[in-house]
Amino acid sequence: MPNFVKLLLGSCLGTLLALVVIALIGFSIIGGLAASAEEKPRVTTNSILTFDLQGLPELTGNSPASNPFESFGQTPPPGLHDVVRAVRHAAQDDDIKGIYLNDGVTGVPFTSLRTLREAIAEFRAAGKFVVSYSPYYDQSAYYLGSVADEVYVGPLGVVDFRGLGADIPFFKNALDQAGIKFEIFYAGDYKSATEPLRRTEISPENREQTEEFLEDLFGVMLADLSATRNVDPARLRQAAADMTGWRDQQAVDAGLIDGILRRSEVDHILHDKIGFDQDEKLNTIDISRYFAARMDRLDGDGNDQVAVLIAEGGIVDGAGDLGSIGDKKYVNEIEKLADDDNVKAVVLRVNSGGGSASSSENIWYAIEQLKETGKPVVVSMGDYAASGGYYIAAGADSIYAEPTTITGSIGVFLTFPIVRELMEDKIGVSFDTVNTARNANAFSPFREMGEEEKQLLTTRTQGIYATFLDRVATGRGIPIERVREIAGGRVYSGERAMEIGLIDRFGGLDAAVASAARLAGLDADDYAVGHYPRLKPQWERFLEEIMGADDDNQVVNKVVKSQLGAENYGHFELLRDLSRAREPQARLPLVVTF
Fold first, then answer.
1. Which of 97, 128, 181, 191 is catalytic?
2. In the annotation, is 172 catalytic?
3. Which of 112, 132, 387, 493 is labelled catalytic?
4. Torsion angle, CA of 443/446/452/458, rounded to 10 degrees?
5. 205-230 confidence digits (pLDDT tens)
């Protein structure tokens, strides 16, 4: 009886404490919502727009918060397309006089940065000033800042403009030393995603394709810099080769920048442009706060809607996390769009290097079912639409991409780890088997793979590759023999993809939306645009985080990313996903450093 009483009291006490915690959380949520509602930003007259870009997802809110407790109650940073909308709105806003680019950019790929750069160029063309300053320009910050009327670097600073490159780590020697090897099956001579596990240096095929698409991207970069800095592309190429941006006054003489100034001196320039006395405080507002003050999310309310379904991140099984494309979640979203009578057309915005082949097939099939309803489907490609990212795009009625989009990579691979040597020779653990059938213990990581197993996985990989080729041939209307020629896992820039028929037109998301509307027979100015998927409210995601409903790995990933930095995390993520893969993958083979 005493034990029973103790257990009962303990249970009641635990329940009471849980209720108190939930109540406190509820009050915090209500308080946070009330505070955020009361603190809606205001835009004062004679304001200057600023940017602080620590990553830039396609869809607003579609990236995990680094700390949910700190970010709760705050408006999430707007995604790429909402930032572009905000910049265009600011160009016509009498309260906004100019843009001051005085913060770096982190983890924003080339094509997304170029899209933002073009929006700022439109802002400048509207007659408003753009000034850029940084104590140190890395290449991405310089590329964005070069769109300004005036570009300044701080004393002792540099402009780290030196061209595009790709650093590819190879892990085979380390794996050999650890006693781990991978059985690897792949289709396509250019399908190089598994090279870090099976080679110690880049293959000739991978070197060829990487040099080709990097040169295409660098050519676009030089053309953009030439247009805004009024410097010949050949001179810019030489300046990059010589690292002229590191040579103080020579960077000015070469036209890379307009001067070397202290921040206080740039402040004086801004005061003059606004017409303020030097002792007056400048009115600045960050793009996130400006968006919260002036803009609304595109929910597509009303009849005759073009739905933009944003698919960004790796393609994974199940629902997936924020910033990933879970087949369960996206198939459900596509089915809802198919059933919604207000949705007349769909634009699939793809920014993905691929992932699970099976999940890619599921999403592809859902899109085919959507097309059966008579609704046109247009694809808009972002930074990447490669491998599985191209798989889900292949069946669209029309495909738009940017010249700098990285696409193609039509191939498949499968990796299987073998840790027998690690267990037996390094640790001293051995295994024996008992079978009820010849292959009962097949695909064990604790012994060498037999020829029958290898043949089965080879056949499976080749079969999935054949399906991938058929999806591309049917969707693009290209003979299967021609698809084989341009596939093989080869990666292309958007420019090359246009030449070989993998895309239809150059253009951004707006062009794709207009095309979808035309295909649906909608009047040019008489339809709404909605962005999907509809994300869960912030408070609901917050509760899932703290109550443990979220994937535990997501917390670990946030910690690793914070320690490695956004760029290095990309290499870690690629290696992690390669080592975890237990099914055929359609994935981009490398991480591009910009």
1. 191
2. no
3. 387
4. 60
5. 999 999 999 999 999 999 999 999 99
